[in-house]
Specification:
The protein is mainly α. It has three domains: about 5-255 and about 260-290, no CATH class; about 305-460, no CATH class; about 495-580, Alpha Horseshoe (Serine Threonine Protein Phosphatase 5, Tetratricopeptide repeat), CATH 1.25.40.10. About 65% of the residues lie in helices and about 0% in strands. It has 34 helices and no strands. The chain has helices spanning about 1-5, 20-35, 45-50, 85-100, 105-130, 145-155, 165, 170-190, 205-220, 225-240, 245-250, 260-265, 270-290, 310-330, 355-375, 375-390, 415-435, 440-460, 465-475, 480-495, 495-510, 515-525, 530-545, 550-560, 565-580, 585-595, 600-610, 615-630, 635-645, 650-665, 665-680, 685-700, 700-715, 720-740. α14 packs across α15 (about 355-375). The N and C termini lie far apart (about 110 Å). This is Protein O-mannosyl-transferase TMTC4. One of its GO terms (biological process) is endoplasmic reticulum unfolded protein response.
């Protein structure tokens, strides 16, 4: 490799070749690219995996992490995605604990640091892959390809396809997996230090490498593929397998094939056995932990895998591979999600996109032929290792062994991109060697690095907020229903319902079976009192997905508003049937019973809501108010006190209990609760108005007058307060006349 590496001497200055400065430069480049994401929000999947994940909170036992998936669901659940990454979730939990809550900056800082760590380790990894494995007499590894390893690591550090992994907090799974992947590979290399004239291996380092591979898999499933790369490296670099020689002997029917050099290398068979049994054992344990088999995905997640024709499936899978290759070659069109119609199915060989498949396989076959048949031993080794690093980590996402839940995902290219960077660096070195225009090659390399860095900075900015992220996808995947859905959801959260409706309608148009878009659109229409269309949408949603509990509950709310009480009750009951622990549905069922004057049923429903969710303030409040209105003051007081013990800082509960205590003539305690509620929410007119009524009853007329006036300033239209204030003024006037 020395001559290939030397061909880059006009591009890589000798001053940055020492390992420390090379690693410093690579680490700094990775920081520059993604530092802009430091103060970003939690976006997209971060909400489910982090903010709404109970496994991050102290009240969840640490042991539960080993029985839950990445999103906090039990692995035994039929709805679990089976993404078993307990070590990644553990780092999220540590982040949450050390930063004192959900502060995105601390989570983003860890991701940026992890990417920098992976890039630094890659300098050593590429040094081995390009230059081979040689040690000094003191056991120190020689850096035989410093220019190539530095350039490849720089290309990796600034590759824009990594933005999703670094700027999206859930991408930490890929970063941690890659970190332990590199450590496993470097650990495997340490097993071959030269201790004497004969090369020996250290079983300890081989076993440690397998253990680190298992740790990588506990961060993300791809991590286990490092054992495959270790095996390829061992056979090619340590065993010095010459495929070309074996093929030639086979064609000549040479009997010397019976004992090729690779089999004579001491310990190779033993190491391959360790890797095979170690990998199989880890995968078996992983499969047992999954419990109920592979996850169930829907057609919108991966439409090609649901195609009836094997030919259609094969064509589309290969087209997906070509798209992944294009993202590595030209990472300009990036999108947070490539599903939901973003990439229409190829249904016949007449589709022009088949050209992409042909181009991909033309390049791959050319590289494979060179990797196997080149007369140059270094060229064969580098191309084979580069292809191995590109292909082996990608295999779990290839649909070859099992169905995956996506079409294209930029995050799964984090590890394979290292193989691409290796191949690109080798190509540039060959080009530089065979051309006299060295400055042109240098300009090309600097241009690639600069443009990729610029794209990383821009893309990191897009990942800082959901609004920017979702809108950036509209131009890349205009046919993606999920993109329109997420833009609409973001607008709805900001209160822009009119624009949200437009995007939700487009999502439903693009995917007429998109039940979540129907549900959200139905909710907005319900709030705008467009009840008829809302009912039609929600009815269609539950018809398409009969176990969609949220849609059943929302349908019940709409039917309740339409005074179709029996249908509403049935919808609520169906929702609870599909989601037994559904406190919000019990709350709405209680409201229905209250409207029907079925007070006992209403109280039971609200009690169920508070049992399932003790902090359900609305259910507690409704119980207190219903008991108060029906004259059960003692029971209302007991419920109010129970609620405040569970939610001591809820001002609405203070207000409701204060009303009950006032009617029970416990004026002092009632006053204290009113004042606490007002302190928490000083601009709530009803709080001042009801405190004024308490003072009015209590005989503190001046204080009553003061709070009536405050209440009317805050809400001049409150008729009840006006009437009470008028009564107080007349009473004060009468008292003044008597005094005169």
């Amino acid at each position: 490799m020395a001559e290939w590496d030397a061909s880059l001497d006009h591009i890589i200055p000798s001053s940055v070749l020492p390992p420390f400065w090379a690693k410093f430069l690579v680490g700094f480049a990775s920081l520059v690219c993604f530092a802009r994401s430091y103060d970003g929000d939690f976006v997209f999947d971060d909400s489910e995996a982090i903010v709404n994940n109970k496994d991050l909170r102290a009240e969840t036992p640490l042991g539960d992490l080993w029985h839950h998936d990445f999103w906090g669901s039990r692995l035994s659940s039929n709805t679990s995605h089976k993404s078993y990454r307990p070590l990644t979730v553990l780092t999220f939990r540590m982040n949450y604990y050390l930063s004192g809550g959900f502060h995105p900056a601390s989570f983003h800082a860890v991701n940026i640091a992890l990417h920098g760590g992976v890039c630094v380790l890659l300098v050593d990894v590429f040094s081995v892959l390009f230059g081979g494995l040689q040690y000094t007499s003191k056991g120190r590894r020689l850096h035989l390809a410093p220019r190539s390893s530095l350039l490849a690591a720089l290309l990796f550090a600034v590759h824009p396809v990594h933005t999703e992994c670094v700027a999206g907090v859930v991408g930490r799974a890929d970063l941690l997996s890659a970190l332990f992947f590199m450590l496993s590979f470097l650990g495997y290399c340490k097993a071959f230090r030269e201790t004497n004239r004969e090369k020996t291996h250290s079983t300890f380092w081989v076993l440690l490498s397998i253990l680190l591979g298992a740790v990588a898999m506990l961060c993300k499933e791809q991590g286990i593929t490092v054992l495959g790369l270790n095996a390829v490296f061992d056979i090619l670099v340590i065993g010095k397998l010459n495929v070309l020689e074996i093929v030639q002997k086979f064609l000549r029917k040479d009997r010397s094939l019976e004992s090729p050099g690779v089999l004579r290398t001491g310990g190779l068979l033993f190491r391959m056995t360790l890797l095979a049994f170690g990998g199989a054992g880890v995968l078996y344990v992983r499969w047992k932990i999954m419990g109920t088999g592979p996850p169930a995905f829907t057609e919108v997640d991966n439409p090609a895998s649901f195609a009836d024709s094997m030919l259609v499936r094969a064509i589309n899978y290969n087209y997906y591979y070509s798209l992944n290759a294009w993202l590595l070659l030209c990472p300009w069109w990036l999108c947070f999600d490539w599903s939901m119609g973003c990439i229409p199915l190829i249904k016949s060989v007449g589709d022009w996109r088949v050209i992409a498949l042909a181009a991909l396989w033309f390049c791959l076959i050319g590289l494979i032929c060179q990797a196997l048949c080149s007369e140059d031993n270094h060229k064969r080794r580098i191309l084979t290792l580069g292809l191995g690093f590109l292909i082996i980590p990608f295999l779990p996402a290839s649909n070859l062994f099992f169905r995956v839940g996506f079409v294209v995902a930029e995050r799964v290219l984090y590890l394979p991109s290292a193989g691409y960077c290796m191949l690109l660096t080798f190509g540039l070195a060959v080009l530089s060697k065979h051309t006299k225009k060295k400055k042109l090659i240098a300009a090309l390399i600097l241009g690639i690095l600069f443009l990729n860095t610029l794209r990383c900075v821009v893309r990191s900015g897009e990942w800082r907020s959901e609004d920017q992220l979702f809108r950036s996808a509209l131009s890349v995947c205009p046919l993606n229903a999920k993109v329109h859905y997420n833009v609409g959801k973001n607008l709805a959260d900001k209160g822009n319902q009119t624009a949200a409706i437009r995007y939700y309608r487009e999502a439903v148009r693009l995917n007429p079976k998109y039940v979540h878009a129907m549900n959200n659109l139905g909710n907005i229409l319900k709030e705008r009192n467009e009840l008829q269309e809302a009912e039609e949408l929600l009815s269609l949603a539950v018809q398409i997905q009969p176990d969609f509990a949220a849609a059943w509950m929302n349908l019940g709310i709409v039917q309740n508003s339409l005074k179709r009480f029996q249908a509403a009750e049935q919808s609520y009951r169906t929702a609870i049937k599909h989601r037994r622990k559904y406190p919000d549905c019990y709350y709405n069922l209680g409201r229905l019973y209250a409207d029907l004057n079925r007070h006992v049923d209403a109280l039971n429903a609200w009690r169920n809501a508070t049992v399932l969710k003790p902090e359900h303030s609305l259910a507690w409040n409704n119980m207190i108010i219903l008991l108060d209105n029906t004259g059960n003051l003692a029971q209302a007081e007991a419920v109010g006190r129970e609620a405040l013990e569970l939610i001591p800082n809820d001002h609405s509960l203070m207000f409701s209990l204060a009303n009950v205590l006032g009617k029970s003539q416990k004026y002092k305690e009632s006053e204290a609760l009113f004042l606490r509620a007002i302190k928490a929410h000083p601009n709530t007119a009803s709080y001042h108005g009801n405190l004024a009524v308490l003072y009015h009853r209590w005989g503190h007329l001046d204080l009553a007058k003061k709070h009536y006036e405050i209440s009317l300033r805050l809400d001049p239209t409150a008729s009840g307060t006006k009437e009470n204030y008028g009564l107080l003024r007349r009473k004060l006037e009468q008292m003044q006349k008597k005094n005169v």
